[in-house]
Amino acid sequence: MxxxxxxxxxxxxxxxxxxxxxxxxxxxPAPTPTVTSVTITGPEGPYIVGxxxxxxxxxxxxxxxxxxxxxxxxxxxxxxxTISNGVFAGVSSGEVTIWIDVTVGGRATKRLRVHSSYxxxxxxxxxxxxxxxxxxxxxxxxxxxxxxxxxxxAPLGLFMSQNGLSVETTVFLGDLELTSPPAVVGDDxxxxxxARLTAPEAxxxxxxxxxxPQTTRIGGTISQDWRPMNLIGSARVTGELxxxxxxxxxxxxxxxxxxxxxEEMLRAVTx
Length: 271
Fold this sequence. Notes:
This protein is mainly beta. It has four helices and 19 strands.
């Protein structure tokens, strides 16, 4: 009698154990994770006209994991920058929003600012808009009358090397070579170059305020301060850039001609 009881209890126990191992039938497969967000990743800039930058997309799942995603890329300002298959190309200075539409997850966006590229050699001229002189620069040299009189076109060359937003510039006023410390391209695409030539005959300080109306042309203004070493007086000149066009990265800027007197400096600035 007792033996039958234990045999029956053992059978019931063996039947219950598999059910317990399966969770007693109260569970089931874990839910499939869903997409909670879409993100665009890539270089943080600066983004420069003519540059190419590769972006990618990823999705975050409800279980906290991330995985790469594909979709359709687009942008709202193709005149500023274009994007295809995640590759963005800067076209002109300005702002553009790029996006990717992922089938499961929706759209992700990223706002980009494209900055002007001043890299290269630029050749053109500037038209004198005002000139004031004093002392012997007026009476002896007649600077504003004979050298840089109002309305005159004078040659201008720029050799510019850009790294990111930093630009190093050599300015050529005719054959005179002025150097400048690095300048930074502003968010509006404008660039201020402060250049100087220091010689035994005179010191010339020039300030150029530059912008790019086209990717192959520079516009802006120039001002010059002339201070001769052996004469009393000074001169100040302002002008506007005229047809300063890109000559190509391979073009060689003119070398500054050596000068040995103030008279040669005055001739060199108009050559």
